[in-house]
UniProtKB/TrEMBL annotation:
Sample GO molecular function, one term: nucleotide binding
UniProt-recorded name of the protein: Glucose-fructose oxidoreductase
Superkingdom field: Bacteria
Annotated stretches, region: Disordered: 335-370
Every Gfo/Idh/MocA-like oxidoreductase N-terminal domain range: 9-131
Cross-referenced Pfam families: GFO_IDH_MocA, GFO_IDH_MocA_C3
PANTHER family the UniProt entry points to: CONSERVED EXPRESSED OXIDOREDUCTASE (EUROFUNG) (PTHR43708), OXIDOREDUCTASE (PTHR43708:SF8)
InterPro entries: Gfo/Idh/MocA-like_OxRdtase_N, Gfo/Idh/MocA_oxidoreduct, GFO_IDH_MocA-like_dom, Glc-Fru_OxRdtase_bac, NAD(P)-bd_dom_sf
Domain GFO/IDH/MocA-like oxidoreductase: 141-257
């Protein structure tokens, strides 16, 4: 809850695609304790007109970004743009003193990630990457189980994340940073990193040479292997050309934990915990996964502290994605230089808000075949 007299952080949402319309914009109702929607940016006039009527806020084109941020007294932006535009709008926001919450992947290159971190530091603004699962109970409980030693020493992580991409969706287009590795890769990479509490040291990747015309120039399917210190291994399969699956499993010396669905939103989630041959099932009710991001980031801004999923967390995943792309291209394993992350998600970050029925989007079809 908001403290008495605490002001609300004023947000602009930059981008009005499907995710923004069905999940992020309506989440402000669940985040009203300390967060407030004041502007929306889109290149689509029809979207702007409809969303202005629906939310009663300023709606403008990207060319008016800086002026609207000033006029609407925007404190923070939530960037929901194609991957190749994340750096540009992070820099534009920082230069007018606006804090940044940016969707993942943080960017398409390590250099862009580093530039985003640098510009935020130079202009003294907070930069957070939108890892919604860092605030969600099923994943935080999984981390807690690993840290408690319930599974013993963890040694293996395995995940599958697949879906059928809609033809023409930005996730299938090379020029805007599409492809399965950039779109879906951050989910299992991030999960392996926070469950093991470590960073990978070497990676190997195979991508499928898919004749499907949807994936010209991008990877439609990929299989990856990550080596961690202490003999730990992680593997995941991702695809934009397969039936929908979302699951991960971590195996330790005393037991294993399977989480289904592993990475999505809008549905109940389950744990299947097996120790000493006995399996316990636990369900987690569907919750709004986007309002917690807003509530948490607003608190960081109000208290002047760095968010846990900072720009460094985004960089940690992108550097692995880039190495996997190199491995797929060369057919060789790629070693990663040392990289340290002291901050990890914890139960202290758990925030729950009720699920809602998503509104019908305007000119923003689902990214998947339904």
């Amino acid at each position: 809850m908001a403290r008495q007299g605490e002001r609300r952080i004023r947000y602009a949402v930059v981008g009005a695609g499907n995710l923004a319309q069905v999940a992020i914009l309506p989440a402000f109702q669940n985040a009203k304790d300390n967060s407030e929607l004041v502007a929306i940016f889109s290149s689509d006039r029809e979207k702007r007109a409809a969303l202005k009527k629906q939310y009663g806020v300023e709606c403008a084109g990207y060319e008016d970004f800086e002026q609207v941020c000033r006029d609407a007294r925007v404190d923070a932006v939530y960037i929901v743009l194609p991957n190749t535009m994340h750096r540009e709008f992070t820099e534009r926001a920082a230069r007018v003193g606006v804090h940044v919450l940016c969707e993942k992947p943080m960017a398409t290159t390590v250099e862009d990630c580093e530039a985003m971190i640098r510009v935020a530091d130079e202009h003294d603004v907070r930069l957070m990457i939108a890892y919604r699962l860092h605030f969600e109970e099923a994943n935080l409980r999984a981390i807690e189980l690993l840290r408690s030693g319930t599974l013993g020493e963890p040694s293996l992580f395995s995940a599958v994340m697949t879906q059928q991409a809609r033809p023409g969706d930005i996730r299938t287009r090379q020029e805007v940073g599409g492809g399965a590795l950039l779109d879906e890769g951050p989910y299992p990479i991030n999960a392996a990193r926070y469950l093991f509490g470590a960073e990978p040291t070497e990676v190997m990747c195979f991508t499928q040479e898919d004749p499907d015309s949807r994936f010209e120039g991008v990877d439609g399917t990929a299989l990856a292997l990550l080596r961690f210190s202490g003999g730990r291994l992680a593997q995941f399969a991702i695809s934009h050309a397969a039936s929908e699956v979302s699951s991960y499993r971590v195996v330790g010396s005393k037991g294993d934990l399977r989480v289904e669905p592993g990475f999505g939103y809008g549905t109940e989630r389950k744990h299947f915990l097996t120790v000493e041959g006995k399996t316990l099932e636990r369900s987690f009710a569907d919750q709004d996964q986007f309002a917690p991001e807003l509530l948490y980031f607003s608190r960081c801004i109000l208290e002047g502290r760095e968010p846990e999923p900072s720009g460094w967390e985004g960089l940690a995943d992108v550097r692995v994605v880039v190495a996997l792309q190199e491995s797929a291209r060369t057919g060789r394993a790629v070693k990663l230089p040392p990289f340290e992350r002291r901050e990890r998600p914890s139960m202290d970050q758990l925030i729950t808000r009720p699920a809602f029925t998503p509104p019908e989007p305007v000119n923003a079809p689902s990214p998947t075949l339904e």
